[in-house]
Hints:
The structure holds 2 protein chains of 2 kinds.
Chain A: H1 3-25, H2 36-48, H3 51-83, H4 85-98, H5 107-114, H6 120-143, H7 147-155, H8 160-171, H9 173-189, H10 191-194, H11 203-212, H12 216-244
Helix pairs in contact in A: 2-12, 3-4, 3-6, 3-9, 3-11, 5-6, 6-9, 7-8, 9-12, 11-12
Chain B: E1 2-13, E2 16-28, E3 33-37, H1 44-52, E4 59-64, E5 67-68, E6 76-79, H2 91-95, H3 97-100, H4 106-120, H5 135-147, E7 153-157, H6 165-182, E8 185-189, H7 193-199, E9 202-206, E10 213-218, H8 230-251
Parallel strand pairs in B: 3-8, 3-9, 6-7, 7-8
Antiparallel strand pairs in B: 1-2, 1-4, 4-5, 9-10
Amino acid sequence: MNARWTYYLVLPSIFIAIWYAVSKAQLYPVYIVPPLEMVIKSFSELISTGTLFQHIYWSIIRVIAGFAIAAAIGIPLGIGMGWSNSLMRLVEPLTNIIRQIPPIAWVPFAMIWFKAGVVESSAFIVCIGAFFPILLNTISGVKGVPVLFIESAYTLGANSRQILTKVVVPASMPNILSGLRIGLGIGWMSLVAAEMMGQDYGLGSFIINSSTVLRMDRVVVGMITIGLLGFLMDRIFKELESSLLSWRGR
Amino acid sequence: MLILNNVSRTFISKGNTINALDKVNFEVKDKEFICILGPSGCGKTTLLRIIAGLDKPTAGEVMLDDIRVDKPGQDRGMVFQDYSLFPWRTVIDNIAFGLEVLGVDKKERYENAREYLKLLDLEKFENSFPYELSGGMRQRIAIVRALINNPKLLLMDEPFGALDAQTRNIMQAELLRIWEKKHKTILFVTHSVDEAVYLADRIVVMSARPGTIKEIFNIDLPHPRIRTSQEANIIRDRVLKSLGTEMEHAMK
């Protein structure tokens, strides 16, 4: 194991050590600080019965669906808003107000509109969370395209449509991709809100259902799983980003 | 032939009217190499942008072979001072851009682009990205990218301004080599008298704001020119004197 990895592990190890010490000393009741061993035990139970994977499966399906819809609307709209001042003036006031509303505030309507369906209602909440970072980053990417590139393309004979597809879109790709990455992260963070509508499966509903029966050890299992999977998705996205944007150099 | 007919351009900024160009009249013959010199803010770049179609004159007109210029077109190529290669495209896709937007198929435009790479002796950088190249290489590629559409006119706005003195000299010789091979009409804006005397058939000295043509120098010396020759020194001296009085105006 190389030195960098040992570095990464310092703080998590200290955290686990303190957690272990606190649970050994039995300073708090188990529903306030669930002991480390109890959490590990629930973890391995949930893995061996396969229940945890079902929760993960449903959560990922919902997040991907919501994220894909957010991207499919956010990227084209963002390009349009960055490119056309009149579209910007038309849409921006509304989006600026809607984006202040947290995804969880949409839960009542999500339940009514989508009848608390297995995927649709949750995907809607995830979509609300993922949409705005994608939209805003795309807009700032398009607005930040250097005039020099656009003028060069015009003098080389490109028409407006070609400027958009061959200059503006590739030039704003770094911002679009970071918008997608942040959007995916926020969409994933909206999971608990998205799965509080009485679903049987999903990491968010697992946390809520466990808390109602005071199984705080299971709540911790759900939290850790969300944290680890979110981290993993972010890493994968980062790799994808740097391979797609290799033209930027190091 | 390029004809500038009473070209004027005023800008309005914070309520003030600025006369950038005032009744510029000038003719450029085919295959001529023109250098435009002048103090900062004399409208050299504005003039070039108007000819390119990136800006419009407030009054007057630009005619290229009897056609009035009013928007950018493939008959006029432009090379900018700042590095303008598209960083997300490889060298060959940068050079082939002008053909790509015309709808030329990939095989043909690559063949064409490779010919230009060969002209520059940069074949082995075909698949490199701009960030992997030196400043001099990037500008040479920007030049052939502008040439691939076979424009009548090549407009160059201080293309070597960002390069160090040594690279600059090499680039000037390289530009002359390309010019002699492709024989284009070139309008070259520069700050450097030395550069202008080395390159141009004619040097146009512009006056301080409002920009207008002050004096035109014919340079009949054959290429390659010796930068330190007696004749070059004499011309340099005359151009510097003409420019010098304008510099004083510009400072006041």
